[in-house]
Specification:
This protein has 326 residues and is mainly alpha-helical. It is 76% helix and 3% strand. Helix 3 runs antiparallel to helix 4.
């Protein structure tokens, strides 16, 4: 064999390996690269973007959706979807304020919030795992039911808190960093550990990849699914506490509206597949930041708020198209 032929063979071997590495890098880090590009472009569009207060504002604005999106990530990795998060947030917030006003105890109000959110998530899990109802249908029904109950309890209006100290949960700072940002970072860390370092996380990935194979592997699929939706409900309750505390009130009609769209958009942008079995918590974290930066730029550029939904919908479509090309 001549040296010329040997070099040609090495080149043909290297090209597929190089393409495979590029494909792997793109699939693993595309959302981070996208965030860096959008972040840099935003700095050229508006000189106010790099203002430190504006950066904290972005983090503050995405903290609630970010916490909800973490739960949505776990749900979607398992192969499901949760359309009820916005309505569950509203109902949880209503029950939290009612308990706060009735007892005057912040601790009891927080416990009730956790109980309501987790219980509603548990109901979703039971309908899906035991009732064998498709997640889309089950959570769609929960979305309508939870919103209806919230409207009934509050007579279609808002309920305000009567304990001023409750507002410190969302309106206090540590070293210029507001509490909601810290809660978001803490929840991201905990969910990351849960999904990537525990048996439960491995089971969720296994169910999302192939539920039948997971059953044959002696994984208790029903229990894991119930746990997944209960976790999502718990994270919604954390978001409800923050939102209620920040405003010291909750609206039965508008609170949580379209939060499911924002959460799903962040999760898909982060690389989680709609079909389940693949996704990362860190991807969702950067997906939330991308949405926050885009929303912030539209506000700085005085783009109509009515167009923001269009932009989010367009981003979802583009993200799904990129996933199909992988």
């Amino acid at each position: 064999m001549t040296n010329h032929n040997f070099k040609d063979q090495r080149l043909t071997i290297k090209k597929p390996v190089f393409k495979a590495r590029l494909s792997w890098l793109w699939s693993e880090y595309s959302v981070i690269l996208a965030f860096i590009i959008i972040f840099i472009l935003s700095s050229f569009i508006s000189p106010r973007f790099f203002d430190i207060q504006n950066q904290f504002n972005i983090l503050m604005q995405v903290s609630i959706i970010g916490i909800i999106a973490l739960g949505m990530t776990v749900v979607m990795i398992s192969g499901g979807i949760d359309l009820s998060v916005g309505s569950v947030l509203a109902l949880t917030g209503i029950m939290t304020v009612i308990t706060l006003n009735a007892t005057g105890s912040i601790f009891i109000a927080i416990i009730v919030a956790f109980a309501v959110g987790t219980f509603l998530g548990l109901l979703n899990g039971l309908m899906i795992a035991k009732g064998k109802i498709a997640s889309f249908i089950a959570t769609l029904g929960m979305m309508a039911a939870a919103r209806s109950i919230a409207l009934y309890i509050a007579n279609g209006g808002s309920i305000s808190g009567e304990v001023p100290a409750f507002t410190t949960i969302a309106n206090s700072k540590i070293w210029m960093i507001q509490y909601p940002i810290l809660f978001f970072l803490l929840m991201t860390f905990l969910v990351y550990i849960l999904m990537h370092k525990t048996r439960f996380g491995r089971y969720v990935y296994a169910i999302g990849s192939n539920e039948k194979a997971a059953l044959l592997s002696a994984i208790r699929v029903d229990r894991v699914k119930i746990g997944v939706y209960s976790l999502a409900g718990f994270l919604v309750s954390v978001a409800a506490i923050i939102e209620t505390s920040r405003l010291n009130s909750i609206s039965s009609s508008s609170s949580g509206m379209s939060y499911e769209l924002d959460a799903i958009a962040a999760v898909i942008i982060g690389g989680t597949r709609m079909t389940g079995g693949r996704g990362k918590v860190i991807g969702t974290f950067f997906g939330v930041l991308i949405l926050g930066v885009i929303n912030n730029m539209m506000n700085l550029m005085d783009v109509s708020s009515y167009l923001q939904g269009f932009v989010k919908g367009l981003i979802i479509i583009i993200a799904v198209l990129f996933q199909k090309r992988e």
